[in-house]
Amino acid sequence: MPHSGEYVPSTWDWVAKQVTTYERTGGQEANTLMDTGIPIVIITSLGASSGKLRKFALMRVEHDGEYALIASKGGDPAHPGWYHNLVAEPLVEIQDGAEPHDYRTEIVTGDERQAWWGRGVEIYPPYAEYQDKTDREIPVFVARRTD
User: Fold this and answer.
1) What are the residue ranges spanned by the domains of the chain?
2) Where would I find the beta strands (DSSP E) of the chain?
3) Torsion-angle region of residue 142: left (phi > 0), alpha (psi -120 to 50) or beta?
4) Structure confidence at residue 5 (pLDDT)
5) CA–CA distance, 22 with 75 (Å, rounded to integer)
6) Nearest to residue 69, comparing CAs of 89, 51, 83, 85?
7) Confidence class for position 12, pLDDT limits 50, 70, 90
8) 13-145: what fold?
9) Rounded CA gap, 33 and 41, in Å?
């Protein structure tokens, strides 16, 4: 794990419960976005302001061992809180199943962003609606394994 320290669960109870269940069962339970059946992964990052460990679930957008982390926040005008964490500290842990691994994230642009964005929309079509709802270009991070 690239970081250690105190873990602060999400203030959203359902997210905190999903993370706990996913980790406890090695990804065998709580491994989809609510009732959609769409797989998720668990991301562990370092809080930009707090310096504490933060964990959240995102859609599983994987290609050739890399992952897209799409900062949609449902099309909100502001970036999700985790966006700022990854900008400040790009090293994260991603758990996709039983074993977590270390990754370095970076925001991608241009053709690379378009390719990853397309993969994300294919898996979760509402991403396209989210983009239509906001004036900001929804950032796409790509996570590449470091361990």
Assistant:
1) 13-145
2) 40-46, 53-59, 62-63, 66-70, 91-95, 100-107, 140-145
3) beta
4) 87
5) 26
6) 83
7) confident
8) Pnp Oxidase; Chain A (2.30.110)
9) 10
H or E element that contains 112: helix 110-123
Helix axes 110-123, 126-133, angle to 10 degrees: 120
Question: For residues 143 and 6, what is the distance between their CA atoms, to the nearest angstrom?
Answer: 23
The length of the chain is: 147
Assign 22 to helix, strand or coil. Answer: helix
Reported as a single tens digit per residue, the pLDDT across 44-87 is: 999 999 999 999 999 999 999 999 999 999 999 999 999 999 99
In this prediction, residues 117-139 reach a mean pLDDT of 97
Q: How much of the chain is in helix, strand and coil states, percent to nearest 5?
A: 30, 30, 40
| Residue found under tokens 């609510």 | 34
Q: Give the tokens for residue 145.
A: 């394994």
